[in-house]
Write a structure and sequence with these properties.
Blueprint: E1 5-8, H1 13-29, E2 33-39, H2 52-76, E3 82-88, H3 91-99, E4 104-108, H4 115-119, H5 122-130, E5 133-138, E6 148-152, H6 159-173, E7 176-183, H7 199-219, E8 225-231, H8 234-242, E9 247-251, E10 253-255, E11 261-263, H9 265-273, E12 278-282
Parallel strand pairs: 1-2, 1-4, 2-3, 4-5, 6-7, 6-9, 7-8, 9-12
Antiparallel strand pairs: 5-12, 10-11
Helix pairs in contact: 1-2, 8-9
Length: 283
């Protein structure tokens, strides 16, 4: 069975941008696109007692949203296969189900009404933490191509799926891949800057990044790689790098500054502050 790229829409400008992004990626991957619109259940979950005309109105509006989204995808990439689906339920649960069998799930960073919660904030993190594969969050603004994909790399095994996704995107786009590792040493409250020589630690961080990239270089020899190790907070470094990127890729789980596991903290902050589309990738 051929997998597809699933993109969620609610008719907002951000959702339309997500549809266009999905269409572009589908053309690169030679895959079909499935556009999904979720009609939320009647308040309090008492769907059996909701007025029939209300449900009919929501369904009609949803069909119009899907028609416009399919039109936007076809205009963007006339050569791709596009299907639509109108489904009732809660956005987070429905999208999680659809994403489980998709190559990737694409959503806008902001939505309309109740759907906004599904597209920005806690619901996105729940999806990223529980759905295998990639979730791409697209912003409304569409700038000119920068010909670069950025991937955040840390010392955890969880960054491997992100590396695989980033290398594949760079290959498909025929662009440069910037592998960025940002690190810091633990700081005492009364010692804002490290006083010891950090050259040894820096060399160790550079060695770690090189080791992480070696097997991927062998698998994707055609991809031009720029390795960057910087002493900075990961969110700040990734945010700055995103300003010159077409796509920023991060894992769904990473390592904190003191080596403790931090679930979603970097991904969450990057989603809010990045200046380009962000892919959160889980194995």
């Amino acid at each position: 069975m051929t997998k597809s790229i699933v993109v969620a829409t609610d008719g907002s400008s951000a959702a339309t941008a997500a549809v266009r992004w999905a269409a572009d990626d589908a053309a690169r991957r030679r895959l079909p696109v499935r556009i999904v619109h979720v009609v939320e259940r009647w308040p309090y979950g008492i769907s059996a007692f909701s007025p029939p005309e209300w449900q009919d109105a929501l369904a009609d509006a949803g069909e119009r949203v899907l028609t416009e989204a399919a039109k936007a995808a076809a205009e963007r990439r006339p050569d791709i296969d596009v299907t639509t689906e109108l489904v009732g339920g809660t956005p987070a649960e429905t999208l999680r189900e659809r994403a489980a069998s998709a190559v990737e799930l694409v959503i806008g960073n902001r939505g309309l009404g109740g759907f906004a919660e599904a597209l920005l904030g806690s619901a996105v993190l729940r999806l990223a933490g529980h759905v295998p594969g990639a979730i791409v969050v697209v912003r409304t603004e569409e700038g000119e191509s920068r010909d670069e994909v950025v991937v955040g790399v840390d010392g955890s095994p969880e960054c491997e799926p992100a590396l695989g996704f980033a290398f594949e995107q760079a290959r498909l786009r025929e662009c440069t891949l910037r592998a960025l590792h940002a690190w810091q040493v633990p700081l005492h409250a009364f010692m804002p800057e490290p006083v010891r020589d950090l050259s040894g630690e820096r060399r160790e961080q550079q060695r770690m990044l090189a080791d992480r990239l070696t097997p991927w270089r062998d698998r994707f020899p055609e991809v031009e790689i720029v390795s960057e190790v910087t002493y900075a907070h990961p969110v700040s470094a990734l945010r700055d790098a995103s300003a010159q990127a077409d796509l920023l890729v991060v894992g769904s789980r990473g390592l904190g500054a003191v080596g403790s596991a931090v679930l979603g903290s970097v991904s969450r902050d990057v989603l809010h502050h990045a200046r380009c589309p962000v892919a959160v990738v889980r194995s």
